[in-house]
Fold each of these.
Amino acid sequence: MPRRDDIESILLIGAGPIVIGQACEFDYSGTQACRVLREEGYRVILANSNPATIMTDPEFADATYVEPLTLETLTAIIEREKPDALLPTLGGQTALNLAMELVEAGVLEKHNVEMIGADATAIATAEDRGLFKSAMIEIGLEVPRSAIARTWEESEVALKEIGLPIIIRPAYILGGKGTGIATTPEEFEKAAKAGIEASPINEILIEESIVGWKEFELEVMRDHADNCVVVCSIENVDPMGVHTGDSITVAPIQTLTDVEYQAMRDAAFAVLRRVGVETGGSNVQFSVDPETGRQVVIEMNPRVSRSSALASKATGFPIAKIAARLAVGYTLDEIPNDITKATPASFEPTIDYVVTKIPRWAFEKFPGVSGVLGTQMQSVGEVMAIGRTFPESLQKAVRSLELGRDGLNCDAAEGELDDLSDADLLAQAAVPRSMRIFELEAALRRGFSVDEVFAATKVDPWFLDQILAITEERAALSGRTVESLSRREWRRAKQLGFADTQLAWLWDVPVGEVAKARADVGINVTYKTVDTCGAEFVAETPYHYSTWEDETEVAPSVKERVIILGSGPNRIGQGIEFDYCCVHASFALRDAGYETVMINCNPETVSTDYDTSDRLYFEPLTLEDVNNVIEAEQAASGGNVAGIVVSLGGQTPLKLAGDLPRDLVVGTSPDSIDLAEDRDRWNALCAQLEIPQPAGGTATTTERALEIVSRIGFPALVRPSYVLGGRAMVIVHDEDGLREAMAELSAIGSLGREGGLSAERPVLVDRFLQDAIEVDVDAIRDATGEILIGGVMEHVEEAGVHSGDSACMIPPVTLSDATVATLEHYAGELADALEVIGLLNVQFAVQNTGGQQVFVIEANPRASRTVPFVAKATGVPLVKVATRVMLGATLDELRAEGLLTDKVIGDHIAVKEAVLPFNRFPEADSMLGPEMKSTGEVMGIDLTAGLAFAKSQIAAGQTLPEGGTLFLSVADRDKAVGVEAGRAFVELGFAIAATSGTARALKEAGIPVAVVVAKLEEASGTDAVDLIKSGEINIVVNTPRGRGPRADGAHIRAAAGSKGIPLLTTVSSAIAAANGIADWRTHRFQVRTLQEFHNGVSRNDLADR
Amino acid sequence: MTYEDALLVLADGSTFEGEAIGADAPNGITTGEVVFNTAMSGYQEIITDPSYAGQLISFTYPHIGNYGVNDIDFEAASPFCNGLIVRDLARLHSNHRATSSLEQLLVDKGVSGITGIDTRRLTRTIRDHGAMPGAFGTASEAELLAAAQHQPPTDGVDLVQTVTCQSPYETASTGGTRRIVAYDFGVKRTMVRQLSGLGTVEVVPASTSAADVLARQPDGVFLSNGPGDPEPVTYAVEAIQGLLGEVPIFGICLGHQLLSLAMGAETYKLPFGHHGANHPVCNHATGAVEITSQNHNYAVVDDAISGIEVTHRNLNDGVVEGIRCLDVPAFSVQYHPEAAPGPHDSRYLFAEFEKLMQHASRKDA
């Protein structure tokens, strides 16, 4: 059946900010959907609060609403746009939940909007544990024994019926949040109660524990003619008990006979049909008892998911794109297979390689968190690697993680496990943690048998034996020398995934010797193609991965090409923003006539969509892997590689820049990058330009650091060089703190980890500017020296909070015109002095001492995290412009070409707010500091600063109260401004509750305090935590006292977090919130598209309440 | 585990490096026509499928042997393929159904193999140049090349004789009450198992005459799969001509080609055949897409032939995948509705056979 003509406009809901459990895979799926639907001629209306996405680029939809994803906003959009249909299956759980809210509120019915891709009944059947279970039993499929409970009493009854161990899952929760395993009655009570509280409908599923069983997943699609296909089958290396998002997973399934696999396939289709997913993609999870083969259904998602992004990248079958086409009426056989072009999409991809996904965690950012993996997802990103065999793909995946590891052990960092006794090592491997895969290999290397390791870990013996193959190869190689290996032996080692760096470490020779000896015997890398069909048909889409076999499939062409290095796995500090930059670079260069080549290893991204660039290499971003691609591209084009872009993917590619062929790296020279990073050279530069900096110095030893501090005084900011996201950055207030920080940095340095201290990577120690306003400036300079200021962003939180965690505003609201002019002038001078070609980000601190005094903190000649936000706020495609500049165009030429446009003129203010993952890590303190902790960002855009800030808060998940009681507790150094914040709230009619010290300060300033609570340790009656938990508090402002979790503040913040009460941890954000509440009260809530803002909206368009 | 170095050499001189696995071959040489199969699971069923008689099976999926072998998933008592080509033979297998390893099966059944092959390059070679003879083993490159080039082509060779049973045997019904005679051109056990769900199955040798079959008074006749070129199997075509109109007929794979020949159609050899478990087939009657299991090198020419209509076509390349006789109760499909290995999407065809038999018996009554 062809395209539906009875609908003209479609509303698509995005997934909002990047959070744990919902990352940029939904930008990938949403971007594909937007593209397809517009290609089909529909008017696309998009709602998504995340400015760092490609899908919210104004050219991807007809109407782009960067607005908070709430029922109120969606209702306003629907009233304004009157769409014919709503497609809710491509924006993750967020979109699905919102769609259900719209149904329940009657909004869709009232405005005659048809839900396509899924219907409310199907969503409810899949999402509601009870409905799902009875549906499965009805169609004769097995599910784990289970019961539903809404109260503790019901939970107790269920416990008796099912018996321990038990899994508790809250209903309607994304990423398995609030899910727990209980093996004792005490654990059960704790988990059941927490689960009931976490579920939005206060309901939990209590299940027989199948921990240790094998876990599988099928990615399936169905069209409205009832054609069903399996796109990809996935087997988890980690058995049941670890959330699939936290598991190492492999495609295709490895250890099922065809009989078992086909039974699973039949079951998956039966689930799809019974749940009633009429069209689109879904995933169905299964568990299999390894002893008996008993197969049970675990769950299904009636939508595109994280694993469907993985499945799309793993097979070359674009699930989201096809799902969008199916939703508007097509059947699978009417859609061509993108990759072969000649065959239809109504088939099941077959792959002739092995795909391994490994999650990336960020536990080092959250002290106090156990790091034990469980049924609640905790990872912040993932990598995928493709190899012809599992050992090869596993080792490639490990080195893609950028943990400073070269592969599965056989590197310097493997020594971390040396201190463990054999028994302790095995015991440690038995508990799933982020480093378990290394422990498995180490245990096998120590001589434990596959059976013994299986007994301890339940990791399937096949996987263990494949790991053992790596171990045995290493043992065989360790007795050899670099020049003694035969051709077949080299080939065998490389086919098992060993990197040259691993062999160099093993033989203690320079890596160059390894590469040379290997090449001398004629063993060179080959590139194979991901083609959906195991080479049965000719592939049209060049999507490659490396392996070490007979022939390479990179097609020769003489066209001039540019290689773009991606940003690797999402992590805190380096996320979707950098993928956005790489994608923009690819688009801009393709438009300019270059062939574009992308290298990346993150399956969640738009950059690894084979549609984004002319050629995609799914490869680790290590020197060896990148150099191999460069050589392959040079060979295929007769040396026609015009350049390599390293400055858009964050630190990942930048770290490689110095070792890549110098004449090929485009943009700012590696020497300039070093000039900006090397503290001594940088200080000299600032002095020469007469740009003030905070006093400071560099240190490689604690003694030297103490010496610096004796000169500059405390507090001091201590940070490693060459890191993103403020990894290991701290503010120290005394000598002990400084010693502690230095010790920590040297420890990670000796392991070769990111952010570690070493002679080449000294630590920076600077005077910390208290109470200063932090400002970011993004600029572009071309080869003629013309400078374009992209944006000046004023941070809401004061200096000391990492810029990635701070809210910021465009245009600045409290800086004087003279200060802005100074900032722009300094940025320009620095750009000139650094001979920047392309993007530059400069961070400043502005101190209000008399006038506004500007200090430069640091400059980075590369794309910054804020670039997408600036582009959305100003309408200028900064990255596209910068990329062209890097390849030699001038700003003037780009103006003439029409790519570089003027900043939009309008009265709007855009606020970027960070989204923090503390709800995932209840043990961690939710205070902000110089180390970045946020996973994502949202944008609020409106015509006053207050409204924009309020929208940003709602979008980030904390709706500011309209009235009620403010709980205020600030550190002594914040007392003066804290009083002003208190006054602002009182003027809005809020009552104030405060801790004794804060209350005293408020009273002295004549501000009434309704409730005074004692400090926790002094409290006899109601303390601060009791008060917050009582539900009488509507907003909490609590600022931390110095470094580290201090008892009081940490408990207060944890209480606010667990009650879901808006929490602000800086006084400046409290004042911004007060302004927001004031503006919110006086103005009517309005939504506008980005396209409207870019055409210019005047303050006169504000509507009063 | 280390294996002896070995080579695979194709008739066109292409050489691949690997290691010898499975049974030792005489003179270190194993020859056959090289075909590739794209299924990712089901190697035990594939290796023991008699349709692969005379062929060297190369698997496009690199890891083979992961879940071992068991006593149930055999499609014949022994493999008829000449050899096995894989990228990576499992060192250890893991599955609760397994009773032995694939390597042990190869040794026990006298099948040689080669591992470590760049099977993707091999697939691309065959895709671009067509299925071709090859030889692998521990012999020298020159010996292997000579062996590959001396390997006779399959065109015009009756391979059915090498796989059919010597005398009839009966399988008890597991469900229905029909009496079915099944021609064994290389029948897979799963076909017999599926037919047993409809009634008693009498499996007869390929050369059984129409009169002999009719004497058994069957409710339906089944034409099985089998290896190679259908054209030289003239005795079967004659028998089918004698059965058409007398008794309902259902054919699969070679059985489909033989039925088509009996109806006057022609067959031809595909460049490299269809061997896999993911081929989309359109059922023209319903418009539905079936994901099918396939294993054939020959196909029926898509010409208008009086008395038959094409009921199914392959959506990848348009190859005829099913026909129905208009005037007599007979139909057949090129692909494998019994699966094993592969999807179960087309098992409804056994029920169609039952309907056809029901209809015929009602008419008789």
Note: Chain A touches chain B through 60 residues (CB under 8 Å).
Amino acid sequence: MVVTLFVITFVASAALGVVYELTKGPIESAQVAKINDAIKSVVPPFDNNPSAEGYLVAYEKDSLRMYPAKKDGKLVGVAVETYTDKGFGGHIALIVGFLPDGTINDVAIISQHETPGLGDKMEKKKSNFTVQFMGKNPKNFKLMVRKDGGNVDAITASTISSRAFCDAVDRAYNAFMKGGKK
Amino acid sequence: MNVFKEIVRGVVKENPTFVLLLGMCPTLATTTSAINGMGMGLATLFVLAMSNMVISMVKDLIPAKVRIPSFIVIIASFVTMVDLSMAAYLPGLHAQLGIFIPLIVVNCIVLGRAEAYASKNGVFASFMDGVGVGLGFTLSLTLLGAVREMLGSKAVFGFKFASGDGMLIFVLAPGAFLALAYLMVLFNKMKRKYFSN
Amino acid sequence: MEYIIIIITAIFVNNVVLSQFLGICPFLGVSSKVETSLGMAGAVTFVMALANLVTYFVFNYILLPLHIGYMQTITFILVIAALVQMVEIILKKVAPALYQALGIFLPLITTNCAVLGIALLAIQKNYNLVESVVFSTATALGFGLALVIFAGLRENLELAEVPREMKGTPIALVTAGILAMAFMGFAGIVK
């Protein structure tokens, strides 16, 4: 009786092991492709493989992953995976592309659960919210919404989402300036 | 055994969503768009057909006492296969469906069919039963997904037919309940009218 | 402080039934009477807390070290099935009245997607042992809350005039939808 269960579990595990081996490669490629697409969308053109050269930088209680983008051996930008938990719907994951001097090249959303029609306008295809960050250097562009004395124009009726977005970008900038390889 | 009749049974008379009220969790959660609903339905169809088939093949070898755990292991294996395959070849859809792919294993439809049908019938019949019920499930989910997508995002299968957002409530939690409620009423009305036999 | 946030989020903001769509089958099936709902909620809370505890160990001390993380689904559901069996046996001995009252719903906790779903989510969110158990207990409380509120609403619905076509499940679903809308109001209370 127990033997039957054992045999079934054994056969099932064996079959699964095979499927796992078969899909391991494609799964990893899909994940790498996803990161690469995200990196490509926020840093200037490069010819190296940033996802293979990723490194962690400790910042506050956490660590952020950074990917160097190089062209002809010279650093042209660094993509920083950042996040915030202060979103209206919780966790927001972003990737910020910095030029070596700390200027923001572009910002892309990796995941968000903000309110559709309001906070989710932070997505590029829904509004131009992220355009205002491009080319700005946080040294003289305060990463806070205007309501809090900063330079960022918040999304209409979505102050909390906008604030959370700024929090994530700010985290990325501080971590980059502290430990990013320039 | 009339294959066509079996399939119609799974789609209309014993439609898992609108008639049997089984598998509600994925129904409400993954139907934010027609493609998501269809993807979920097809993944479940695969598990239903394959596990029904295998369970029917080994039904005489399993002692009654370990029946349910054995079924669960077989079903869970196919679910994991679907999970891994989707992660490898359909990463976008896999990310959208998220946790509901492994949750196919506790979808009452799958275990229910295994208990009620596959453990008592032949291999081919069980396979077709899985296909029929799976098809019914897929059609319900695709329909619900399409309705929610049309009302909520002014799009269907990803093609926007008007700009801007629609009644966003439909792509959120409450909308799922509301859309399902009214679709259920319509479905049962149609069923009573055209399929009363 | 972190734990308070986990608790409030699990019960209200991301209510397991009304916003994550887990545990719908028992939600629609058991919730016609407030008493049964309370019994069900209690049993589910116990199983969920225990399931998260055990699956945490299984994942981190058995699956990961052996690099067989993909066996998650199979092992977790078997653990849950075994736990429910155990709860059944214990309940039969210790509280036979409750055991009788719950009837078929007790074994059905195994197929409650909330139990497996929350166990999987806790792993996904990388919770440690304490966070995982707090998370699952709070989630189960949210489940109980939704269940009891819904049962109360449905008991009142029995006395209302409902169009013939909508009697039973459709009107229950519409009610659930409105309740879900009400819970959406909790979004953003955690800052």
Note: Helices of chain B lie at 3-13, 24-29, 34-58, 67-89, 91-97, 108-118, 123-153, 173-194.
